[in-house]
Design goal:
The chain has 16 helices and twelve strands. It is an alpha+beta fold and 395 residues long. The protein has a five-stranded mixed beta sheet with strand order 1-2-8-5-3. A three-stranded antiparallel beta sheet has the order 4-12-9.
Length: 395
């Protein structure tokens, strides 16, 4: 592959991060196969052509050097019409101003009071499925808990729960066209806009009211800034925990020893959460290259795009011994499931809490379980990978 100046792109290894058949069958198996067979950094001609990191070290270099690898475009190929998402789509120094404003809302002490409510939601959801002996886990549990938690935290009226959940599922569906996804984005924006107007007129004790009232460098955030922040939180808050929970439960369905370990010793659940995040991270972060640079022997040009699959950090043998094995006996859990560098996920404390509360409730109420038919779950590719189905049974 060459560009208009005749600069060769090499090495070339063809891979479609959205529609590769192996990826859609099992995204983690396919990325592990790439790790063992493809060059450390390679060019693919898919989606207009872009680079892909294929080592933990190259992924960490990309996400930790925003001065070279910009977040200006969060899709491959770049979409100049994408909704602006503050602070995710900003680079330094602009990024830091907004992150500093939002960080206090997501610190561990700020979200700690939510644990009792998260526990209530979890128990309610499990109460609906426990007696049935089986469920399609993604639709019955994994996609519902984060929606409930986010809506209550952010300030959306709970009577819109089913409408919101359908919006999230449809927006992230791999079968949605660009035009359909754009339409879903407009619907999300309409809900956000109404909520911001309502809370500006009549503040309540919820996160959006507090953000509206915040002092930002001597002024209030304007409507466009509030919409941008809200859109990012909507997408990040509703999909991330769903995916972590689904991949984690698929592993546990086939790991009787680990299930028994946490049934016998629930204190091991926080370590299990970290280890499952390490082994089954699911984000592949797009970046836009703003200056010529060299990465693991590949010559990258300004204007190129690069994909940084975050699972590779947790799979790096230099950071984790025997990374393919899931173990709660490790001394350290090194991974980038929540990102790394300046764009590390603001909501990581809340996500961890939701996962820990869920697993505690599941193993206390249901205990052992199994996957009804391995291989029927199907994966979603793209920059945020997911399980689309997971049929579980117990009892």
């Amino acid at each position: 592959m060459t560009d208009s100046q005749g600069m060769a792109r090499a090495p070339v290894f063809e891979f479609d991060y959205i529609a590769d058949p192996g990826l859609l069958a099992d995204c983690h198996d396919r990325y592990w196969e790439l790790k063992e067979t493809a060059p450390p950094v390679f060019w693919t001609n898919a989606h207009g052509g872009h680079w892909i990191c294929n080592t933990g070290s190259s992924v960490q270099h990309v996400v930790r050097h925003p001065e070279i690898f910009s977040s200006r475009f969060l899709s491959i190929p770049p979409n100049p019409d994408q909704p602006r998402m503050i602070p995710e789509s900003l680079d330094p120094p602009e990024h830091r101003r907004y992150r500093q404003l939002l960080r206090p809302f997501f610190e561990s002490k700020a979200i700690a009071p939510l644990e009792a409510r998260v526990t209530e939601w979890t128990e309610e959801l499990l109460g609906k499925v426990a007696a049935t002996g089986e469920c399609e886990f993604v639709s019955a549990v994994a996609s519902r808990l984060p929606v409930a938690v986010f809506m209550e935290l952010f300030g959306f009226p709970m009577e819109k729960f089913d409408e919101f959940r359908k919006l999230v599922v449809d927006f992230f569906s791999s079968r949605a066209s660009i035009e359909q996804r754009q339409a879903y984005a407009f619907q999300i924006m309409a809900h956000l806009g109404q909520l911001i107007q309502d809370r500006t007129a009549e503040p309540r004790d919820d996160m959006i009211s507090k953000i509206i009232a915040s002092d930002f460098e001597g002024r209030k955030l304007d409507f466009d800034e509030l919409m941008s922040i809200g859109f990012l939180m909507f997408l990040a808050g509703l999909d991330t925990v769903t995916n972590a929970m689904s991949f984690g439960m698929r592993h546990l369905a086939h790991d009787e020893k680990l299930r028994q370990r946490v049934i016998d010793d629930p204190a091991a659940i926080p370590n299990m959460v970290e280890e499952l995040l390490r082994r089954y991270a699911f984000v592949a972060t797009p970046r836009y290259i703003v200056q010529d640079t060299e990465l693991e022997g590949a010559q990258l040009k300004a204007g190129d795009c690069i994909l940084a699959p975050l699972p590779l950090v947790g799979w790096d043998e230099a950071l984790t011994e025997d990374p393919k094995t899931v173990s709660v006996e490790r001394q350290f859990y090194r991974h980038a499931a929540f990102g790394s560098g300046i764009h590390t996920c603001l909501g990581l404390h809340l996500a961890r809490m939701e996962l820990i509360v869920f697993y505690r409730a599941w193993f206390a109420r249901i205990g052992h379980f199994r996957q009804i038919e391995k291989g029927d779950e199907t994966c979603r590719g793209g920059s945020v990978m997911a399980l689309e189905h997971l049929h579980l049974a117990w009892g």
